[in-house]
Each structure stands twice: as structure tokens, then as C-alpha cells.
Amino acid sequence: MHSIRFSIHSDAHQATLLGQCLETLCRQHTPFEQGLIEDIQLCILEIVQQIINDNQYAPHTQSISVTLMLESDKLVVDIEDQGRGFNENLLQVILQSSTILDPLYMDQTLPDQAFRFFLLKMTMDRISYRNENQRHILHLEKNFKILNSKDNSEIHLGKSNRQQEGLAV
Hints:
This is Histidine kinase/HSP90-like ATPase domain-containing protein. The protein is of the alpha+beta class and 169 residues long. The chain has a single domain (2-164), classed as Histidine kinase-like ATPase, C-terminal domain (Heat Shock Protein 90). The protein has 5 helices and 7 strands; from the N terminus they run E-H-H-E-E-H-H-E-E-E-E-H. The chain has helices spanning 12-29, 34-55, 88-96, 112-123, 161-164; strands spanning 2-8, 64-70, 74-81, 126-132, 135-143, 146-147, 154-155. The strands form 2 sheets. A 5-stranded antiparallel β-sheet has the order 1-2-3-5-4, covered by helices on one side. Strands 6-7 form a two-stranded antiparallel ribbon. A hairpin with a 3-residue loop joins strand 2 and strand 3. Helix 1 runs antiparallel to helix 2. The radius of gyration is 16 Å and the shape is globular. 24% of the residues are buried. Residues 149-157 have low confidence and may be disordered.
């Protein structure tokens, strides 16, 4: 199992290094197609940017910890911070919604955080959020193999949920 941990101190320039590392890790050690790697990279960087934006006026510098782990069957990403945290109710509403957002035709009134949550929902296979010891932890997983629930056959290996639904550009 490969594991990499980043600590970002509310600096968008450091997030760029995270994106490059994530891309290299996925390209070299996963079956993901380039389009899916870019989708995952976008999701992670958007969430990190949201945390940076939310904490930019905090009295103390808040660090963001991002852990990238490769397990035998999936990529796991944990994003932790001690800042304001996410709107947990909004996240749950979006995760439980059957609505599929097409970014090309999105409603411009959608809040930034909601748009980022929709990106996560469309790209990742498992999303959970919890508060633990004054830390906010967003746990994300992307499986290497996507199983068809009807016959358990492998389909769309390495493609994002958006690519499978024909929404990818």
C-alpha cells in the first residue's frame, strides 16, 4: 500500500504540488484513465481551495492535511482541517439527492460549496464526513473496478461516474 501525506498551510501554491503528486500517483499505480485522474484531481483541489478560502481570515494559520492512500482495490483520500468545516447538512442533501448536475448547464445560483459537493458525488464512489477531536475529516474513495450490480461484471474500468453517464467533456 502506498501512502502520501501533505500538510498545506492555507496556501494555494502548495495545493498545486498536491495536484501534481496525485496525478503522478494515479498515473503510475492505478488503472484510471487520464480523464478520471483529472476529475479526481479537480475534486480534491476544489475542496482544498474551499477550505483555504474559508480559513483565510482565521486569526491563526490553519493547516490542511491531505492523505493519499492506494489500497489493493481503490484510491483513498482523507482531507482534514481544524477550520470552519463544511456545511454537513448541505453535503448530506446532495449525497442523498438523485439529481445529476451537468456542469455545462449548471444553475449559476448554486453555492460554491454545493457545486464542489456535486463534483465529489459525480466522481467518487464513497464519501463520508465526520468531526473528530475538533478536526473535520472528509473521507473519499474511488474504486479501481466498478461492478455492475445486476451481474457483477466489471464495467467502465477506470472511468469517472460522469464519463459513464456521458456527461464528461
